[in-house]
User: Which sequence fits this backbone?
């Protein structure tokens, strides 16, 4: 009895996944053409493409326009440290990762007015952090601060060095975490499949005077990022919980 297409695409994905894990298909290797794979598995081209989409969504295979499908080199995993207020908030364990920073002056609009609690068109500075592993984009962070809190000596455009932490006295760092599919812009910038889920983190930092001093929007592809949140319970806090 012939299996329905949904079962066949999962069976194909399982077989290719197994070949990748046991080394029969090696990182960087080009897969046979979609037509040859479809003929090999005796399925239609749409069913074969659906199977490849599953592997693309897992970060195991990448499709390069005009070249074909390739087994992806495994990317280094990074860990987002919850409660931090450094621009990247990523554990600094991998020397292979490097970051470029681009500064842009803009006016508050849409979601930014609510996050930063400012009036529409209030002056802001955006710091776009794009982390790479080699030549491959790894993760993306957009940091927004009120213009008067941005370093005075930072010009607009691509910065050659990582910005130092501001280390403002913070009272509250609120983080919202979700998983979602990337926007078209994020998929293009990070060169990932639009079906690969990302870890989306929105972090808002407030100072001791109650002013929002930073809003950060982070996009961390799920095939290369983890998140760790740690709560420290003081003696006073434990007493309050009783």
Assistant:
């Amino acid at each position: 009895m012939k299996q329905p297409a949904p079962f066949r695409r999962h069976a194909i994905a399982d077989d290719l996944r197994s070949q990748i894990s046991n080394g029969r298909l090696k990182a960087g290797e080009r897969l046979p053409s979609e037509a040859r794979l479809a003929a090999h598995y005796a399925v239609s081209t749409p069913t074969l493409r659906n199977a490849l989409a599953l592997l693309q969504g897992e970060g195991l295979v990448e499709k390069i326009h005009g070249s074909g499908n390739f087994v992806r080199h495994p990317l280094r995993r990074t860990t987002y440290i919850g409660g931090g207020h450094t621009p990247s908030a990523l554990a600094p364990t991998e020397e292979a990762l490097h970051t470029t920073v681009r500064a842009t002056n803009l006016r508050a609009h849409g979601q930014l007015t609510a996050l930063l609690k400012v009036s529409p068109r209030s002056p802001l500075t955006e710091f776009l952090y794009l982390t790479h592993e080699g030549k491959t984009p790894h993760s993306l962070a957009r940091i927004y601060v009120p213009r008067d809190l941005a370093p005075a000596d930072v010009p607009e455009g691509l910065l050659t060095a990582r910005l130092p932490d501001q280390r403002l006295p913070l009272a509250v760092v609120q983080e919202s975490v979700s998983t979602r599919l990337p926007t078209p812009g994020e998929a293009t910038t990070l060169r990932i499949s639009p079906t690969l889920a990302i870890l989306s983190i929105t972090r808002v930092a407030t100072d001791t005077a109650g002013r929002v001093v930073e809003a950060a929007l982070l996009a961390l592809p799920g095939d290369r990022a983890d998140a760790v949140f740690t709560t420290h319970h003081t003696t006073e806090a434990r007493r309050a919980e009783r």
